Amino acid sequence: MESPQPDVMAAETAGIDLLESPGMREPLELAVATLGGSVQSWQLAKLQHRPGAGATGIYTVRLRGNDGGERTEYVCVTTAAVPECGLPLVRLDGGAVPLTAWLYPSDPVLVGLPAACDPAAVGRSVFGGGGAELRMVSYRPLRRAVLEAEQGGHKVFLKVLRPDRAVQLLRRHHLLTDAGLPAPVATAGPADGVVVLTEATGTPLARAIMNDGAAALAPETLLDLLKSLPPGVVELSRRPAWAERAADYAKAAAAVLPDEQDRIFALAGRVEELLASTDAGPVVPTHGDFYEANLMVDGGRITGLMDVDSLGPGHLVDDLACFLGHLAVLPAVHAGYVHVPAALERFAAVFDTVVDPAGLRGRAAGVALSLVAGAKTAGEGHDWQQDALQRLAIAEGLAAEA
User: Fold this and answer.
1) Rounded to whole angstroms, how far apart are CA atoms 298 and 62?
2) pTM score > 0.90 for this model?
3) What is the maximum span of the chain, computed from C-alpha positions, in angstroms?
4) What is the tens place of the pLDDT at every residue in 258-274?
5) Is 243 exposed, middle or buried (0-12, 13-18, 19+ CB in 10 A)?
6) Are the C-beta atoms of residues 232 and 172 closer than 8 Å to each other?
7) Under a CB-based contact definition with an 8 Å cutoff, are residues 353 and 273 in contact?
8) Cβ-based neighbours of 346, under 8 Å, separated by 6 or more
9) 296: enclosing H helix or E strand
10) Which residue of 71, 141, 350, 396 has the fewest CB atoms within a 10 Å radius of its CB?
11) What is the pairing mode between strands 99-103 and 203-204?
12) Is 157 helix (H, G, I), strand (E, B) or coil?
């Protein structure tokens, strides 16, 4: 794989640089002016970067209204193309990087987000009345949001997507629960694009891995779960496997580690070579995002299979590679994952018996590569550059093993 031209890389990073810079004061002032106020202070709360689709900053803004009162609002500003949607958007096209801003919880794509953030609306729709206690779990502007809702000790999760994708998600959950698999029960929420999911039982697999490498969980249990996905899954739409988008994730990684571009694009090229030269196996029902964060366990049993948005036709090797790629990267995420090397060896040894070992590691390298850029937004209190470099080295190690 050849490295992109310098001007392409400059375009990829220019938006990120602007969103992280003091130069955002003026765009935020223009955006807040439409609310009838002025900026008193602001800070970047979170940056989301989608390879090839732009970056979005979420800003905490303290503003003073025309009445003299002060309040805090969240303003989203994106470099992505945003269609007209009936919401009050602020277009800032004067600079080298066109920007679009809006006020949270409105979102140009996630039309159900305001209702999902309304305690009274959630209380009526989900709990049959009263208010609900809401907590935002994650928000990826223009893509999805997840909220926790609770009333009287009863807890559910609200997933907010594009309305058409919410319909597809309901179908995916129904396929799994009808087949007796431990996926959350899904129902329609308080507005278009909102899906209500029951809480899964058990312990997060990530915690079990940190505790003892998930010693009680046999690798064969994961294989059995994947093999029990219902045949109807292959009739769903297919999404590319993580390793198939190595070129896109290489661009994202190079944007946050520009000094490592040569290493990054060489790795992406190696992943592409391995995908082309190894046997992927037959098309089968797959989860599409199969890793520890999406699994709950009780000892050696799997009690929860979550985040099934990517459920569809694919290759078993990609689900297994997703699991191994994420597992391999955990020590870069937290120093407490001391049992990962032994766990990685244990799971890989069994996975090697059902898929091409070289293809498994090559695809796992692609998964690890997809996680490099995410180190920058993993949260405060850590050396994200060291984290990203460690993830890159882990991905290179997987490719070398192939």
Assistant:
1) 45
2) no
3) 69
4) 999 999 999 999 999 99
5) buried
6) no
7) no
8) 213, 219
9) strand 295-298
10) 71
11) unpaired
12) strand
